Amino acid sequence: MTVMVDVDRLVKRFGDFVAVNGISLSVKKGEVLGFLGPNGAGKTTTMRMIAGFLTPSSGTARVCGHDVATDPIRVKQSMGYMPEGSPSYEDMSVRAFLKFIAAVRGLEGAEAQKAIDRAVERVVLADVLDRPIDVLSKGYKRRVGMAQAILHDPPVLVLDEPTDGLDPNQKHHVRSLIKDMAAEKAIIISTHILEEVEAVCTRAVIIGRGELLADGTSAELLKRLPDYHAVAFVVPTAQADAAAAAVQGVANVAAINTQSLDAAQTKIRVVPSQNAPILAAVAETLKGKGIAVTEIYQDRGNLDDVFRLITTSSGATKSAA
Amino acid sequence: MRQTWIIAKRELYAYFATPMAFVFIAIFVALTGAFTFYIGRFFDRGQASLESFFSFHPWLYLLLIPAIAMRLWAEERKSGTIEQLLTLPITTCDAVVGKFLAAWIFCGIALALTFPMWITVNILGEPDNGVIVVGYIGSFLMAGAFLSIGTCMSALTRNQIIAFISGAVVCFLFTLSGLDLVLNVFRLWAPEALVSTIASFSFLTRFESLSRGIIDIRDIIYFFSLIAFWLFATTIAVEAKKAA
After folding, report:
1. Phi, psi of A71 (to 5 degrees)
2. Structural domain of B192
3. How far is CA B156 from its chain centroid?
4. B17 and A77 in contact by Cβ < 8 A?
5. What angle do CA A181, A186, A191 make, to 5 degrees?
6. Rg of the Cα trace of chain A?
7. Closest Cα to residue A206, out of A279, A304, A311, A72?
8. Could you tell me if A30 lies within 8 Å of chain B, comparing CB atoms?
9. Do A252 and A272 touch, CB atoms closer than 8 A?
10. What are B140-176's pLDDT values in tens digits?
11. Cα Rg of chain B, angstroms
12. Of A61, A62, A120, A63, nearest to A95 (Cα)?
């Protein structure tokens, strides 16, 4: 697969403040890359440099082989970009705004009309086509932003927080839209919603304090959790002590936490050492002791925990990686 | 060039999308009329000319042109649309010139709508229409120069009020530099060469001869180079401050 976006040691300084400090990454056709990071981590600044809005202090960004610094127009032609909050000219109607975008993109007459119709159909905007943008709801405004980004059917899409502030239905719609387009494009989205990464991204990078802290699929990122293989089970409270004693004997068990759920039931969580898989062994042991387990599952953390772990202890994680 | 025109068209559309355009044009036409007839004593002069009409243009522009220019870039930055605009396949120069052209065309429309004045003098007497045409051209060029200053001030801030006031102040300096009020201060100590240089920067001095129907190529070059300079400065300001 061809590399569509290639970012090499990108740096952006604002005076003394280093917003982005040497980020390198690449996105291939068919990939949806998620930019993850806390607010102020440098996600938007990185995207703005890739989109040609900000000039990098050093390093290069290439889109479809064109260097942002030397050939910004080509870069902008081959990219659809939706800025954070999808700002658009609020005094225009949706139709007039999209016509303007089409004209700037070099589309005219029937060609422009076809492009607008296709984009409007894709993001479901037909109902509000003749309304001024400033009276639209947040969800519709975001769709206008999406429509202008995909209008010229660009090979690269960069979307800054495409689902921020949307309700669950709207989020679902935007995500399925991104998934639909993923096959024939290279897409970068930024988000701080981790479920989004699992839902739409083929890969994710975690950015913190301007640096790339992690790069991988969501499964790979999850594996970095210390208790990725932790196991939890629920037993009747009467049998809790026996159960805890039993799993103590299982190989690689590092810690056991008991938590009473109600008068009758107790939840026991077992964390292995060295991230060893222990589910089968735990289940076997409990069964062997004749303990009546009502529920047993792998209690891995979620991406939220990985995110917190990586972004709050970046020094430690970096040396580990 | 094509991109510049597309930007200009959108910008013109934006002027007329709100009642602001009509309010502005109404005020402009009403004020030029009022000034000409009452303060300019149009009838008492007993002359079939628009000299009194044109003589108030620099002062009207001082107030009204920064008001047209203030939103051009400040609004884009405030609302964040500047990011949308500058990530489209256009150069910053396309955007700067396009926006300026839209505002200039808008001024041209307002100026053209003062045509009843021209009709009036033609009914009352036999004016030299050539002089009047040159006066209109001069007024339009001066409007462009005022606008280019206002555009640059608008690019320096995200606050439209600040853009308006700083635009008006800089325009005021350029207008005033031809008045004896200012020049006398310099005449006391400065060499004549410096005094005439300062005077030559004045809109008033340049416009006065044009409004009398005298076409001096240096006046035309002056206005165009002033516009070019300020638009160049605007481009630099937009580049430097777009993300701030």
Report:
1. -135, 55
2. 2-243
3. 18
4. no
5. 85
6. 24
7. A311
8. no
9. yes
10. 999 999 999 999 999 999 999 999 999 999 998 888 8
11. 19
12. A120
Nearest CB to A87; choose among B80, B88, B89: B80
What does pLDDT average to in each consecutive run of 10 residues of chain A (321 residues)? 89 91 93 88 92 92 93 94 92 94 94 94 91 91 93 95 87 90 92 82 89 84 76 87 84 83 86 81 85 84 74 51 35
Contact indicator for A1, A155 with CB cutoff of 8 Å: no
- The two tokens of residue A282 are 């735990």
Q: Are A236 and A225 in contact (CB under 8 A)?
A: no
Residue A7 CB coordination number (10 Å): 23
Candidates B22, B47, B23; CA nearest to B36 is B47
Residue A29, token pair as written in the block: 């056709």
Cβ atoms of A63 and A55 closer than 8 Å: no
Nearest-angstrom CA–CA distance, B224 and B215: 14
Interface of A with B in 142-201 (CB under 8 A): 148
The total of structural domains in chain B comes to: 1
Cβ burial of A15 (10 Å; 0-12, 13-18, 19+) is: exposed
Instruction: Inspect the interface and report whether the beta carbons of B83 and A48 lie closer than 8 Å.
Output: yes
Listing DSSP states for A135-202 in one string gives GS-HHHHHHHHHHHHHTT--SEEEEESTTTT--HHHHHHHHHHHHHHHTTSEEEEEES-HHHHHHH-S
DSSP letters spanning B147-179: HHHHHHHHHT-S-HHHHHHHHHHHHHHHHHTTS
Residues 6+ away with beta carbon under 8 Å from A75: A51, A52, A63, A64, A66, A67, A68
Q: Which of residues 204-263 of A touch B (CB under 8 A)?
A: none
Q: DSSP code of A257?
A: E
Among the listed residues A79, A53, A46, A34, the one whose alpha carbon sits nearest the alpha carbon of residue A178? A34
Calculate the dihedral angle through the C-alpha atoms of A301, A304, A307, A313, rounding to the nearest 10 degrees: -70
| pTM (two decimals) | 0.85
**List of chain B residues whose C-beta atoms are within 8 Å of the C-beta of residue A148:** 84
- Which residues, in sequence order, are bridge partners of residue A33? A188, A203
